[in-house]
Structures are given as C-alpha cells and as structure tokens.
Design a protein that fits this description.
With 166 residues, this protein is mostly beta strands. It has a single domain, classed as L,D-transpeptidase catalytic domain-like (Beta Barrel), CATH 2.40.440.10. It is built from two helices and ten strands, in the order ββββββαβββαβ. Strands 1, 2, 3, 4, 5, 6, 7, 8, 9 and 10 form a ten-stranded mixed beta sheet that branches. It is globular, with a radius of gyration of 15 Å. It starts with 6 loop residues before the first strand and ends with a strand.
Length: 166
C-alpha cells in the first residue's frame, strides 16, 4: 500500500520527464517541458532550478480542466484556441498549480536563488504546447489531465528533486 509519506517526485531535465515514485518504485511517468533557458537558480534567469524542493502549496483543487490562472488565482476563463489568439504571448498557467519551495539554502532557498520567490511551479499548459522539449519560462509544464492525476496523489510537503539527469 502506498502512503503519502512514501511518495516523492523526480524531474529529469535532460529527459524532460517527471516521475512519481513510492520508495524506489515508479508509479507514474510523464513527459514535461522545463525551461527553454536550461537549468539555473538565479532570479530573472528564466531557468528551472535544480536541487531538492517540496510542494509548498497546492492551488486549484476543484477547478475545471483548462482553468486559467493569473497570480495563482483562477480568472474564471477556460483556455481555448480562440482565447489564445486574442491574447498572443500570454504565458498560460492552467488547471492546477503545485508551487515549489527550495530546501537547500544558497542553492534554491533564500536570496536571489529562492524558488518560492521565483514562483516556480508545476502547472498545466495548453495541449498545443510540446512536451518532452524545454520550452517554459522556468516552471515545469505538464498536460492538464496528467497534472490533475498527479495533483490528486501528492500533498503539501511532497519532496520534488530536480536534477539535470537521474
């Protein structure tokens, strides 16, 4: 039987994969999209931070599939291609948000490398966005239906380890 305490997440930046594990056993494996600018921890870099994190907040429980979020709040909009066409260049944060906080002082916690203050999330993205390719602004993007499944299995405090390769 899997308990919440056994669950943790690994994000492999090279493979563009997120794995949900129970102990050493992989129970879910998803293609994701991390930062177009690669790995890095500095504020304003547009990079995905490495190291050990945990889920600080889960946002969006009960919101419909493709709900649009701005500033971590649902706007009441539902993403459609027509909405996208009317808002070119918008960075779409959809469906759910898992907001990450770093656990390594000086690496991903505190000062100019603080993942929480950088607003680093695991979040949904339009289905038209590629998975398995680095294309985000620093966050970890997932397919909306897969994010809902992950969101429902993890809790605040779940460990998230982000590395260039596992």
């Amino acid at each position: 039987m899997v308990t919440e305490q056994d669950l943790h997440i690994q994000v492999d930046l090279q493979r563009q994969q997120l794995r949900l594990l129970s102990g050493n056993r992989c129970i879910e494996n998803y293609l994701v999209s991390t930062a177009r600018n690669g790995a890095g921890e500095c504020q304003g870099s547009g990079c995905t931070p490495r190291g050990v994190h945990r889920i600080r907040l889960k946002i969006g429980a009960g919101q419909p599939l493709n709900s649009v979020f701005v500033g971590r709040r649902p706007t009441g909009e539902i993403y459609t291609p027509e909405l996208a066409a009317a808002n070119p260049g918008r960075d779409w944060i959809l469906t759910r948000i898992l907001w990450l906080t770093g656990l390594e002082p000086g690496r991903n916690r505190g000062g100019s490398v603080d993942s929480l203050r950088r607003f680093i999330y695991i979040h949904g993205t339009p289905d038209s966005e590629p998975m398995g390719q680095a294309a985000s602004h620093g966050c970890i993007r997932m397919r909306n239906s897969e994010l809902i499944r992950l969101f429902d299995q993890v809790s605040v405090g779940t460990r998230v380890d982000i590395r260039e390769q596992f």
